[in-house]
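Subject: for your reference before the review

Hello V.,

The reviewers asked for a structural picture of the protein, and I figured it would be easier to keep everything in one thread rather than splitting it across files. Below is the amino acid sequence we used in the manuscript, unchanged from the supplementary table.
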Amino acid sequence: MALPFILKFIREKQLKGHSLLILICGETNSGKSMLGLWLASWIYKQFDVYKNLYFDVDRFLIHLYVSRKEVLTIDEANKHLDSLKWWDDFNNAFSMALNTQREKNNLYIVILPLAKRLASQHRDMTDVLIVMRNPGVADTYIIKKKFGEFRDIELKPIYVGRMFTPMPKDYLVQDYKDRETGDKDRILIEGISKACPKRYCICGKRIRFFETPCPYCGFTLEVTKDLILKLDQGLNRREVYALNE
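And here is what came back from the structure prediction:
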């Protein structure tokens, strides 16, 4: 069976020494993460969910420094690379890293729901766009660019066909699920910590709500589901909204 055009394109570009940025988009439960997992392991046979898949850009940047000819995948990329956070330190670091590390011949896969929500400096670097239609079914595009533009690079997605892919191997799916549970819970806890008012640590310093260990004294707070349940029960109840007579 002949390979889809987009897979031939990716393979040929990599063999020629290019470092492509591949963007995978689609609605919830459309199969974005599974497609990313399958594609990464198809391109890079040594793909390791614990080494090559990231829900945090900081871990990605650390591994980028020592990686070569690998596939590096950022899932839930809207956490750090969202266009609404174009000024964020991670956005700037990610952009600088990709611009200066192209000679490493890595392939980069970024997964998020909407392409337009990716910060413009990352969209400008995108080479391949994959839009999920259903699990295992995706429309594929090559991104043509006009590098002579003074403003944002003018991007033109060129449709090159529909791709049908199998599920990743079972051990990769299991590793992904194991990673996903812990990492996504931690992402949510970070969000809660930033959204809630600051609290006082035992050392007397005001720090983020769930910040642990304390940057001043090193005190460690065990953030458990029971602790978050108590917070939920304290905030989200009818009595909070009752008028005092």
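For the response letter, the relevant points are probably these. The chain is about 35% helix and 20% strand. The domain at 5-169 is CATH 3.40.50.300 (Rossmann fold).

Happy to draft the paragraph if you're swamped.

O.
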